[in-house]
Amino acid sequence: MERAGARAAEASARCATARVPEQAGTGNDDQGARGGVRRSSVRGQVLDALRAALVDGDLAPGEVYSAPALGERFGVSATPVREAMQQLALEGAVEVVPNRGFRVLRRGARELGELAEVRALIEVPVMLRLARSVPAGRWEALRPLAEATVVAAAAGDRARYADADRAFHRALLGLSGNGQLVQVADDLHRRSQWPLVTGPVHPRRADLVADAAEHTTLLDALIAGDLPVVHTLVTEHFAGS
């Protein structure tokens, strides 16, 4: 038990040190504003940090984390941490453990496969429809987003890559004009980025680089109007998720 507690504390320290902006400040910042930071902003910063820690594996599956302990490490009160954790509970990342805190849920390969299947059912038909109707110039405007995934992958920054990956997919689907579709797809995408409890905790840098390369190749095919290549790429992209 002591060893597990030490691991949890060490993970909490790593994610807090690496991810929370300095303007989050002290525990009083969530009530007012040091440098103009309001409570909702602090909660958002903490939520972003916790999501990054999930992707990095710094919040370990099966471990329980208390809001006061995380709040102390983040330099904020327990309130914004608790609110951020409640949001993560709604997203299926953690579960509430009464009188203790929040447990990071364990995920297996089956769940990941199910998420990939649902994402493919939603995104592939939309992408193929857009490939037939969106002009090349609008696709080209997404080039910086595709390149951002390449840069993050090359650096081996898993949290930054996860954000860039979702941003690219959101922009692609956003061309459909269907905000509800984009929101649902993004939620599924985020869930698919949490590490598995079995197997490698982190994707290899080479895997990130290969995944990012698929983004640029897909964008090139969309700009060229090469529908057979687009079809192959979007279907294989999810099959390899």
Number of helices: 11
H/E element sequence = HHEHHEEHHHHHHH
Q: Helical amount among residues, as a percent range?
A: 55-70%
Main sheet makeup = 3 strands, antiparallel
Strand order, biggest sheet? 1-3-2
Number of E-type strands: 3
Distance between the termini: 35 Å
- Give the rounded overall mean pLDDT: 81
Summarize this, please?
By secondary structure, the chain is mostly helical. The protein is built from eleven helices and three strands.
Word description of this protein:
The structure is a single chain. The protein is mainly α. The protein is 68% helix and 4% strand. The chain is built from eleven helices and three strands, in the order ααβααββααααααα. The chain has helices at 2-19, 39-56, 67-74, 78-90, 109-133, 136-140, 143-155, 158-174, 179-192, 205-224, 227-239, and strands at 64-65, 94-97, 101-104. A three-stranded antiparallel beta sheet has the order 1-3-2. A hairpin with a 3-residue loop joins β2 and β3 (101-104). α8 (158-174) runs antiparallel to α9. It is elongated. The two termini are 35 Å apart. 32% of the residues are buried. Mean pLDDT is 81; it is low at 1-14 and 21-38.
